[in-house]
Amino acid sequence: MSYSYAQLNKDNICIGVSTLSGKVDFPHMIPIDNSDGDYIWRKYEKGQWSEEKFKPDIEGVEAPEESVEDKLARLEEQNLILMDAIATMFEEILILRGEE
After folding, report:
1. Is 89 helix (H, G, I), strand (E, B) or coil?
2. Is 2 in contact with 21 (CB distance < 8 Å)?
3. Contact 72, 78 (CB under 8 A)
4. Using one digit for the tens of pLDDT, what is the confidence trace for 10-62?
5. SS3 for 69?
6. Sheet holding 29-32, edge to edge
């Protein structure tokens, strides 16, 4: 079984979608019905998705300073997501090879 999640930025705008082999419980990972990409750039507020898309204005925008602690927490979280994705791929390879 797989689980699809919308990944939110600090403004609660979806910046990516993930399909994982297990459930996760992070405040910025919102369960969604599918990972077709329709959630990207939509805002999630009070349990509802906006119809409007909030595409970023990248030109001339500087990234805010990130503390070492915040960066470490972000990288650890991303590491967990990547490890789960690798585990899912490995499980799928084993199934395809008939080595469950």
Report:
1. helix
2. yes
3. no
4. 999 998 888 888 888 888 999 998 877 788 999 999 999 999 998 776 665 55
5. helix
6. 14-20, 3-8, 29-32
